User: Fold these one by one.
Assistant:
Number 1:
Amino acid sequence: MRSTPRRWLLVLVAAHLLLVTLGAAGVELGDVGPIGRLLHHYGLASGAECEYDFFTSRDHGQLVLHVDVIDAEGRRSTRSLGTGASHEAEIRVAHIADAFETADPELRRELAKSLAAKMFDRHPEAREVVVRVEYFVAVLMDEHRSGREPRVTQVYDARFRKPQARPEARHGSADPG
Amino acid sequence: MEAPILDDSSPRAGACRALDVFLFAPATARPLAALRIGLASVLLVQAAVVHAEFLDWFSRDGLFQGNLARAFGPLFGPRTGDLLAWLSPLGVGEVAGLRAIGAAYVVALVMLGFGLFTRAAAALAWFLHWTLMNSADPLRYGVDLYAHIFLFYAIWVPVGRAASLDVFLLGASRAPTAGARIGLRLMQMHLCISYFASGVEKAAFIDWWNGELIFRALSFPGYRRFDMSWLAHHPALAQLACLATLAIEIGYCVFIWPRRTRRLWLAAVLGLHLGIAIFLGLHFFGIIMCVLNIALFGISPEPRGDQAAFFAGAAPGESSTLTQPGMRRSKAL
């Protein structure tokens, strides 16, 4: 460290990497006063606050979102929220299911309503749209060998009837299961 | 007359000297250029693949209607709604505004990839990527986080000092710099922290030790690409895959640095990410991680002559164009 600029550069790099480490450890700086909030904002802007907890869920399951379109004859078909143009898009829209984990029933209802409105727009033949979220529980290897099948539990179900101008909920049972 | 710091043989001086070389020995920007081109290419292909969904994801009558998008994700950060509000006094409507944002993002990535006005292009790409990521938070996953992190670095690190139009047309210097070295080290260490954190987090769950997690992940509807149920009849294989993942991720921060183990670890981590891409269908996540690993640890930053000596195992400091007398070159890439 032969020069002052290098020392300062080193301090900045070390501070940034410290934030990266704290972010990776799940430390919430946003609650630690004004400086903590400033660092939290920097962490969001730079990505230093990211956590890397991929595939570390304690749960043995995954939320799965289905959107069913029902036409005037009562025919029901499950449609994707993506346009079907790419696998990448399908992966992303599948992640919307996780948004239903929110504890706020009103927000879940707004989200379901929004998705249903989009489906009415995309499928003019639809008379009703059902937004379902299921919890898929995988089995252990041992259970699979003994013939046990994965379990699916419904955690959210909302049905929307085609409106004249905008989608209106007929009923929206938001049973968190 | 310069003080003879380098002749000081005390342990402290030796440690300072080694740290100085590790962090500041002038390096070429070749690995940084590979990162720049790879990152921009992956994001451009991704943009091309999902462009049909663009309006559905970001417009107010798309999947997240009205102000619903604001209910998800962090409160801080730009959103498409903010940019559209700035554009509306100019008479730009929502659809035209979103198309302009999308086009600006693509142009920024193209400029970043070619290295034209590289810092400005990186700043614009980073800002628009962050904006798009915040505006449809329920749609994001790991690839977006890594892209956001490394686009931010691309603003500050001299990624345009090699294989770029800035060099060929605008005369930017290709000379090795201390800035390239410290930038490379910063990104390398960030990658190490991310793997270590990910590995340690996984190691806290018994399912990563007995192999159940990989069987479970492969059976989830969101990730199932092939029928992997046969794995249940070979639990040792599932366990081996899980343990190898833990070893690769936790050991990364140690074994990616020494020359003797670097190639092995690089191959292992590339195999891990290709496996994720193929078997879990997370193609862009797998590819972007391969790009980051190859750029940061697979490409030598040493000048050409030095590189040959480096890989030939020349003695430290011998026939080096970048080291000063008495100064060792960094043994790590």
Note: The first helix of chain A runs from residue 4 to 24.
Number 2:
Amino acid sequence: MSGLSTGALIVRQARYQLLTFWRIPVALFFTLALPLIMLVLFNALFGSSDIDTDEGTWSVRQFYTGGLAAFTAVSATFTNLANMVPIRRDEGVLKRWRGTPLPTWMYIAGFVLSAVIIAFIGVVVMLTLGVVAYDLQIEWAKMPAAAVTFLVGVGAFAALGMAVAALVSTASSASAVANAIILPLAFISNVFIVTDDAPAWIGTIGDIFPLKPFVESFQDCFNPTVDPPGFNWAQLGYVALWGIIGGVIAVRRFRWEPSGTSARGRRARRRHADVAAS
Amino acid sequence: MSAVEVTGLVKHYGDVRAVDGISFVIEPGEVYALLGENGAGKSTTVEILEGYRTATAGQARVLGRDAAAGDRAWRDRIGIVLQTSGIEQEFSVRELIELYGSAYSDPRPADEVIDMVGLTEKADDRLGSLSGGQQRRVDLGLGIVGRPEVLFLDEPTTGFDPSARRRSWDLVEQLGEGGTTVLLTTHYLDEAEHLADRVGVLNKGRLVAEGTPGTLIEQVSGTIVSFNVPADIDLADASTTFGQLLGTEIDLVGRLVEARVSAPTAAVHRLTSWSLERGIELDSFTVRRASLEDAFLRLVDDDATDGGEP
């Protein structure tokens, strides 16, 4: 077949998803603006204190910047995809694309690539604000670890977002489910508050889910008490494992059509049959 | 090779037989209309042919391929306008046509498509600001952007105002003349009569009649004579009186007499002589050729009474 190459098609799809994102103010606000507002607020409220960790003392400003940057990456991938994909499915947009020659995996790839780009922009903006306003120290020797951690994290959370999109039936429930998962987890995963002094069971729950290992691995890349190169292979492996499970669920359970259409059709046909029989 | 070949197609949803063993063939360049009421099985049949659903039994081939196994090259040669399906509201008409066009190997230029569906003035407006009928025309545009050899149109003009319908008909005619095979579903009988080379009538999942609109009308009907029962004729006597005059059974709805006559000249002569003798002017007197609607209603009614099955 002639036409655009695979790479060009995926880039075009990603560009179209980015444009969509840009044109939906709510998505833009919750994904990119809200974490920045949190950074400003947390620093205004608690920014003067220090955190005592096992490795030494750490300024809380630096703690917030790394953690909220990781959280932004999760919002842009997990929350964004778990929200948008079911919306597109409910609208019938996915079904329409399925009727075109565009291979379905390219459509998904465009969606995921756009989410990763949004995550990257969010993280860069967050870190820049951290450096400019909150004394965040960039240690270049640890940046390769930050990049690898970012890639593993966005890959895993994109896959988990697609898994949620596949498992929930409607767009409205998808949004609720995604937020009900990610917000409580954020509180016990060192995003908003340090959990070192929290009860043991909170630490255990946090360790089970992939958010805390990802946030901690990313924070470590900006933690002055951690020495380069800063790779947390065990935690990254755990995050990747979650991502693989999410990816398998997403692939096996993915649906292109709104749920309930066939059931509605069935009921309608049954009604029709009843009417005809009476 | 036929463009579309359906053989013994069956689709069950649970215990409901949505499609119950239908067969038809569409030749290249033909415009074929599937006609039926809601729930007759039109959309199920079309969605099997589009590759969205798998059949319970039977064959559905499009361009020589089993529709359920259609690949990318096959999809490149077909166009789909679904009955209902969303469009990205955040984009302009032109952006969407270009975007969806990029999926095809040889897309029509966006401006050409926009002109074909009559949206030139709205080309740069976002979908969210268009009316329902205008969005439906975007649907049509997305269906034809890939220069399809076979185009599926599932109730394409539902919700259109009369002028928009006319324009869409012109477009379908133009595509048909250009050699595109079109499978159209509709419950507008005038639409099928106007556009289709051949019509298949679906009722409760079965194909109850097939032919050109002309032959379908000929088969089941003749000429329709209708008028209102004159004021001084008792309604109770109307059936007998006019039945004898017209030489056939009549339908009486309120005061309206309707009769399908096979020898209209003689029947009309008897009726008008009778009324002239009595000095009666027949109110709303009309003689017209039966339409596809008459044929369709008769087919569906006959099927309900003779079919044996509920």
Note: The radius of gyration of chain B is 23 Å.
